[in-house]
Write a structure and sequence with these properties.
The protein is mainly alpha-helical. The chain is built from 10 helices and 4 strands. Keywords: Membrane, Symport, Transmembrane, Transmembrane helix, Transport.
């Protein structure tokens, strides 16, 4: 037991320490505040009843969230150990006669595994934000309007305008891109204009070609199509390239050995 305490004290001396209370406070804020606080919490609050959701949320923050957070900070600061060693010394059962300290490291491994699983999707979300940030420097962000090559109906941007009726009937059973911004702009001057697939048609022209607006249940936002056909495809492409590079380097290494 004395050897373990001495070893932990030696490790504590080797570890770095905070320069002041402000450093520790900023580190805690950086660890707690993330993307979930910025965009996911308002979404969950709206989805689960709006302002009424704040009542059980604030209650659980004070009853569960803050106490557990303070315990985690206290254990980390007092022991100055990682999750594997800290949980070994916390459990009295691990110090018994028939148990070794390593038998209680499972809690530490579980916490590391949980952090690793969160990092997988969280890093992906961070990459999405960078992608959106770069694309937002365009004059008109692509997720605001329809009419891009990846938007539905894709056929209407490669075929002559005279075939718009046949195209509409061909994709009538599928969802089509519908931009509220373009729809309001189309209806701004003449309320009888027809908006379809990112295009605004004169009422006379639309009547002659039997063009009608897409029903509400068959509409899909340009933001959803941008995420589905641009973001997901780009990241899938990057994943495939990395996978190919990994297997290529592995085969090269095996050939050399």
């Amino acid at each position: 037991m004395s050897q373990d305490v001495k070893k932990s004290e030696d490790l504590a001396l080797e570890r770095g320490h905070w320069g002041g209370r402000l450093d520790f406070l900023l580190a805690c804020i950086g660890n707690v505040v993330g993307l979930g606080n910025v965009w996911r919490f308002p979404y969950l609050c709206y989805r689960n009843g709006g302002g009424a959701f704040l009542i059980p949320y604030i209650l659980m923050v004070f009853l569960v969230g803050l106490p557990v957070f303070l315990v985690e900070l206290a254990v980390g600061q007092y022991s100055a150990l990682g999750p594997l060693k800290a949980f070994e010394h916390l459990a009295p059962l691990c110090k018994g006669r028939y148990f070794d300290l390593s038998t209680c490291a499972g809690v530490g491994y579980a916490s590391i595994l949980a952090s690793a699983l969160v990092a997988i999707y969280y890093n992906m979300i961070m990459a999405w934000t960078v992608f959106y940030l770069v694309d937002s420097f365009r004059h008109s962000p692509r997720w605001h309007t329809c009419g891009h090559p990846y938007n539905t109906p894709r056929e209407s941007y490669t075929c002559p305008l005279q075939n718009v009726t046949a195209i509409f009937h061909h994709i009538k059973k599928k969802k089509m891109c519908f931009s509220d911004t373009q729809y309001k702009s189309c209806k701004q001057n003449v309320s009888d204009n027809v908006y379809l697939g990112g295009q605004c048609y004169n009422v006379t022209y639309a009547t002659d070609l039997n063009i009608t607006e897409i029903p509400a249940k068959e509409r899909v936002s340009p933001a959803e199509e941008y995420f589905k056909y641009v973001i997901e495809e780009q990241f899938l492409y990057v994943f495939v390239i990395l996978q190919q590079q990994f297997f290529t380097s592995r085969l090269t290494f095996m050939d050399k050995t």
